[in-house]
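hi!! sorry for the late reply, been swamped w classes. u asked for the two structures so here they r. pasted raw, havent cleaned anything up. first the sequence of the first protein and right below it the tokens
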Amino acid sequence: QVQLLESGGGLVQTGGSLRLSCAASGRTFRTYWMGWFRQAPGKEREFVGAIGGSGIVYYTDGVKGRFTMSRDNAKDTVYLQMNSLKFEDTAVYYCAVAPAGRYIRDGKNYDYWGQGTQVTVSS
């Protein structure tokens, strides 16, 4: 049974940092895209970033220069280092995995999802 388990969320002040982790179990996803999405109250889920098996990374414009994704293929784990956090980064953050070759900015192309972890940035 495939499971994605996020951790690392919490409450932080504006300008602070958090590091999210997402560990996959049940199978290996070394060649898959591992992505992060977020959903704020009253808003649609949005793409944050994704990292391929080779390490190539794509981010949404609003987090470039502040967020950094990395992965440890030996552990099937993806990380999201979030720096210079803003109030508008407040959301539930989800990790997900998609096979190579799919359009990674669309959540519909991801096969497995985690339960999410809450990130709250106080102003």
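now the second protein. again sequence first, tokens right under
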Amino acid sequence: QVQLVESGGGLVQAGGSLRLSCAASKGTFSGYVMGWFRQAPGKEREFVARITPSGGSTNYADSVKGRFTISRDNAKNMVYLQMNSLKPEDTAVYYCACGSRYTANRGDYNSWGQGTQVTISS
């Protein structure tokens, strides 16, 4: 099973930016779909962004479209989430995940990181 470790979370003011990183342990990383999800207190974990194994296609939740960018570096076993124009409602724990299906359904992702906290102050 792939081990995933997120980093890059923190506290920023509204309108600011953060870049989240996710390091994967396994050499076959390039064969997996990668996704970012988030979970705010008292809410369900929700889809944020996904990227195909080659990095050629990406997809975003409507709430982050135009502000967030997912990317990956298969040579480094890394996936990133660049977050710009952050809003207080983006506050959540952010998780990266990998799977074999290119979906927004968290049930299709079978390895998860421990999460990184993102807090946006108004």
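hope this helps!! also noticed smth abt the second:
Residues 23 and 78 are 5 Å apart (CA to CA).
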